[in-house]
Design a protein that fits this description.
Low-confidence stretches: none
Number of helices: 20
Number of strands: 5
Largest sheet: 5 strands, mixed
Mean pLDDT: 88
Radius of gyration: 25 Å
Shape: globular
Length: 480
């Protein structure tokens, strides 16, 4: 599983590792993997749209809406963040495979492929459950219509699921089912409310109403409540309003499509999961990504072949306005200093990485190869230095000193730092922690030097080694 976070698997990490082995350990290689996944999402979305409408123009327009997408969709299908790209791609493949099983005579290998995709997808990211459950119901419904049930097909499907889920099943056998279920239902989500189920659902429903539509349609960035591209916003509101109206007025015609039905049920399950699980405490928008695919498919059909009377020029003007909005809002976010485009919701976690090369050079020159820092410095530092510089993420970055053991994703780093005769400390944008470290070092009677490089403050050249266990590191207390 993704280190310390057992609600998503390591498929993304394995894809990147394989690419590193082939092309070398470079930052750009990670981006190539995400580009490949994004192209897969686009291609499979176009295939689904074409199967639904049998209209090439409608399918290509649907693809265009995802090729030049909302800021939310662009962000989470671009960064390597554990499995959003994989979940969307595997979800689309499940939709296509379900539609294939229902629409034509198939053989047992098709059932194995469906099971393999379902198992692999669920291991990669539990988010794919929203595709798996309605897909399974559609397959079951298809089997009920057959004159006889082929038990062998079901056995093959189950074998496919077990094969795809093999890494997950191995992890559960080692760590226990209870821990796994806790992770799947959001125990890792920061800010999850400890209220009753009714109160929690109501709070999450408010989160959805206040923050969901605005990020789904790109009216704001996932990390901000500030409106984007105000002059072009009327195009977005008008366009999607007409798409919704168009869909409602011709719902009978669309209801016969298994692929669209599958995607619609996936969107409804997504909303239900958002309401009843702790994931609803996160209003950023990343969990709404699957909703954009059926919306894009409906929009492409609306523009190219409307069934109700809207002027052709109006449809194309609104569609062009939406594409312009996506481009402008992304440019606006990308050029907005100091944050630019980021996955960080908390400003204290937005470390300006442009100074990391200078940091690496300084630490290397000073011989400070081991030490302690926070989560958002430790792993970029290890990667960019090819693991010459190992810093254990034992320091908090939140101003209220919140800390979780999950920050220690790779325990071998902790062991390497513990074995080092010399350590340094690196903080970022945390004045209170800086003062706390100074006080702790003074109590130990230790001399040190201090320097600020960009947003990195380094406590180095300690007169004697002072490990994290020797300072007042109260935030590491499990009971805190």
């Amino acid at each position: 599983f993704f280190y310390g976070q057992a609600y998503m698997g390591s498929l993304d990490a394995f894809l990147v590792a394989l690419s590193f082995r082939i092309f070398g350990t470079e930052l750009q290689v990670i981006r190539w993997v995400q580009i490949a996944l994004s192209l897969g999402i686009l291609y499979t979305t176009i295939l689904i749209a074409y199967r639904l409408h049998k209209n090439q123009a409608a399918a290509l327009l649907s693809g265009l809406l995802l090729a030049i997408p909302t800021l939310n969709f662009m962000l989470y299908t671009t960064v390597s963040l554990g499995g959003y790209g994989e979940a969307l791609l595997i979800g689309n493949l499940l939709v296509l495979q379900t539609d294939r099983i229902r629409s034509a005579p198939v053989k047992s290998p098709h059932y194995f492929l469906w099971g393999m995709l379902a198992g692999l997808g669920y291991w990669a990211f539990g988010l794919t459950a929203v595709y798996i459950l309605p897909g399974m119901l559609l397959v079951v419904a298809r089997e009920k219509k057959r004159s006889r049930t082929n038990t062998f097909d079901w056995i093959v499907l189950l074998l496919g699921i077990i094969t795809g889920m093999a890494p997950l099943l191995g992890w559960v056998m080692k760590n226990g089912l209870v821990v796994f279920l806790q992770e799947q239902f959001g125990s890792a989500i920061a800010g999850a409310s400890p209220t009753s189920l009714i109160e929690s659902v109501w709070l999450h429903f408010q989160n959805f109403l206040l923050f969901g539509p605005s990020v789904i349609f790109g009216l704001r960035a996932p990390w901000s409540t500030q409106a984007l591209s105000l002059p072009l916003m009327p195009f977005v509101i008008g366009f999607w309003g007409l798409v919704m109206l168009h869909t409602v007025l011709r719902r009978r015609k669309l209801a016969g499509s298994d692929a669209l039905e599958h995607l619609m049920w996936a969107s409804l399950l997504l909303l239900l999961g958002f309401l009843i699980t702790p994931f609803g405490a996160d209003p950023s928008g990343r969990y709404f990504l699957p909703v954009m695919i059926p919306l894009a498919i409906l929009a492409g059909e609306f523009v190219s072949t409307p069934m109700i009377s809207f002027p052709t020029s109006l449809r194309w003007i609104l569609f062009t306005g939406v594409i312009a909005f996506h481009l402008h809002s992304t440019w606006q976010a990308a050029t907005s200093l100091p944050d630019r485009i980021t996955t960080q919701f908390d400003a204290v976690a937005r470390v300006d990485q442009q100074g990391i090369d200078s940091l690496i050079a300084f630490l290397s020159d000073q011989g400070e190869l081991r030490g302690y820092t926070n989560y958002w410095v430790a792993y970029p530092l290890a990667f960019r230095s090819d693991e010459r510089l190992i810093f254990y993420p034992a320091l908090p970055y939140h101003h209220d000193f919140r800390y979780t053991a999950r920050y220690n994703r790779y325990p071998i780093y902790q062991d390497l730092v513990a074995q080092s005769p010399k350590v340094a400390y690196i903080t970022t944008k945390h004045v209170d922690l800086d003062e706390h470290l100074r006080g702790s070092l003074e109590k130990q009677g230790v001399d040190w030097d201090e320097i600020l490089i960009g947003e990195y403050r380094i406590f180095y050249n300690l007169s004697e080694r002072v490990g994290i266990e020797e300072i007042d590191s109260f935030w590491l207390d499990p009971g805190n």
